[in-house]
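Task: sequence design from structure.
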């Protein structure tokens, strides 16, 4: 893992990031980026990561910003999530994609291509970030198949990049 550049962000850029996040996901996700915080951008060979007070908070996607696993652990949300059973957690934190039989709960309104927070069943804590391969209606009717592509997970390169 190579860090190319790490730099502080101006207030106007922080406000733009906050507006983008709030527009895309709502107020709970903005809680990860408090108004009075030190914000840095870390450019690495794996992509761009937003640091808030020295901790990873968001990563840049093709459509904007989405919380990293550490960022998602800072909030409670009922939007953009799937919950996997205990048996799937060990596989998910090693980078495995999520299969429908392991999903025990999911948010209404999921669309194919949405980034999702992947929670574990017992404590509802985020263990990964994924990209939905199905729409909400498919989650409801299908019982088999790969439904979420695992993008970031506990212990991956971005997790180890900065504490």
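Answer:
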């Amino acid at each position: 893992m190579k860090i190319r550049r790490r730099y502080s962000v101006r207030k106007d850029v922080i406000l733009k990031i906050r507006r983008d996040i709030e527009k895309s996901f709502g107020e709970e996700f903005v809680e990860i980026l408090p108004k009075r915080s030190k914000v840095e951008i870390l450019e690495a060979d794996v992509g761009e990561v937003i640091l808030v007070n020295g901790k990873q908070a968001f990563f840049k996607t093709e459509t904007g910003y989405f919380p990293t696993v550490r960022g998602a652990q800072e909030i409670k949300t009922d939007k953009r999530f799937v919950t996997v059973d205990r048996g799937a957690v060990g596989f998910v934190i090693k980078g495995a994609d999520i299969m429908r039989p392991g999903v025990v709960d999911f948010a209404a309104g999921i669309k194919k291509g949405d980034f999702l927070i992947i929670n574990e069943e017992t404590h509802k804590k985020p263990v990964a970030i994924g990209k939905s391969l199905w729409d909400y209606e498919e989650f409801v009717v299908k019982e088999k198949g790969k439904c979420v592509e695992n993008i970031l997970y506990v212990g991956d390169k971005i997790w180890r990049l900065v504490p």
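The longest helix spans residues 11-25.
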